[in-house]
Write a sequence for this structure.
């Protein structure tokens, strides 16, 4: 049986719905039987939002200064924010942006130190954080730098499908110049690797979408499919990647063809995330592939309009926690299997299993 994991959860923007979805997700005591939660933020803010939630009874919390001191049967809160922190539900403020940055830094330091096993991040206000000197467009870029990864990508996950994008948070006018055969091929390699190691899919099938309406009508309304995307798919196939396409996005999603594939590679953000969120907005998970650690996040934003009104749905946060735990355990299984394969390889004709005898 897999051991009980310690799950680090950052508060995100304290003026959004982060605390509400965290509290609601952890309100069922059975959750603490599955994992040990560690919230990075403020016990004061936690208490404020708990009082706004009418159906939540008293919760067993453990206020600590470090994840080294976690209590396995309680909701642990690492107090990493000032005691005089001020809450303004529904309002992005410089203070809430700085607090989100601080909580994230503490959590990253702790997962590097091995005090927590996986990281789940509540929603942030990217624009407010950039104004306060964050220096990144979001969690993904920050974590890529912090862990020295040279290539990461966002994979949106739900029961119906998984979707990744070639380009991320950039203007639509810059999408074409950021698409190349090499970049698509790199994304396909990473997607295949993540599906195998993180999600336990032995031979993943990946659908690749086109860029232009109706796949460019054979060059009539765009040539990227013929000149860039199709060559990338062919090169991937030659490497043994089960990539198919390019497919015209409207027909692909309209006919439900995503159900035939393990993952979909879209060319730009809204091309992939619009149909994804239409199918799974309350249950979707944002997973960062390519990191040495496991990080997930709900697929929704700060939802300031709901903050403090007991309207936030916790299911995406719950899915993010469960997905992080599943990926962590899948990685262990995969790595153990790969280690076993390496162990039985020996010079010449000898095969030496771990702990066994030499087989002639």
């Amino acid at each position: 049986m897999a051991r009980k994991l310690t799950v680090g959860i950052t508060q995100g923007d304290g003026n959004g719905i982060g605390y509400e979805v965290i509290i609601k997700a952890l309100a069922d005591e059975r959750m603490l039987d599955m994992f040990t939660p560690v919230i990075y933020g403020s016990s004061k803010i936690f208490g404020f939002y708990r009082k706004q939630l009418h159906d939540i009874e008293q919760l067993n919390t453990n206020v600590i200064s470090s994840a080294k001191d976690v209590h396995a049967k309680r909701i642990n809160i690492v107090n990493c924010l000032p005691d005089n922190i001020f809450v303004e539900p529904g309002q992005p403020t410089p203070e809430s942006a700085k607090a989100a940055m601080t909580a994230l830094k503490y959590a990253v330091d702790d997962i590097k130190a091995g005090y927590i096993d996986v990281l789940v991040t509540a929603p942030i206000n990217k624009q407010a954080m950039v104004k306060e000197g964050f220096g990144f467009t979001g969690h993904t870029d920050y974590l890529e730098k912090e862990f020295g990864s040279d290539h990461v990508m966002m994979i949106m996950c739900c029961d119906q499908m998984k979707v990744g994008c070639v380009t991320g948070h950039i203007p639509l006018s810059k999408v074409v110049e950021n698409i190349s055969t090499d970049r698509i091929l790199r994304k396909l390699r990473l997607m295949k690797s993540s599906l195998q190691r993180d999600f336990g899919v032995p031979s993943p099938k990946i659908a690749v979408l086109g860029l232009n309406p109706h796949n460019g009508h054979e060059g009539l309304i765009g040539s990227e499919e013929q000149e860039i995307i199709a060559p990338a798919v062919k090169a991937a196939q030659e490497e043994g990647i089960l990539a198919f396409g390019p497919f015209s996005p409207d027909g692909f999603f309209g006919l439900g063809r995503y159900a035939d594939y393990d993952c979909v590679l879209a060319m730009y953000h809204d091309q992939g995330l619009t149909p994804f969120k239409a199918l799974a907005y309350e249950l979707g998970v944002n997973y960062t592939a390519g990191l040495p650690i496991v990080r997930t996040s709900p697929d929704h934003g700060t939802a300031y309009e709901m903050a403090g009104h007991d309207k936030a749905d916790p299911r995406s946060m719950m899915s993010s926690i469960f997905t992080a735990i599943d990926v962590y355990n899948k990685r262990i299984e995969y790595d153990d299997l790969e280690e076993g394969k390496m162990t039985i390889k020996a010079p010449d004709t000898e095969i030496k299993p771990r702990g066994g005898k030499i087989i002639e």
In short: The chain is about 40% helix and 15% strand. The CA atoms of residues 345 and 351 lie 6 Å apart. Residues 349-360 have pLDDT under 50 and may be disordered. Residues 315-343 form the longest helix (29 residues).
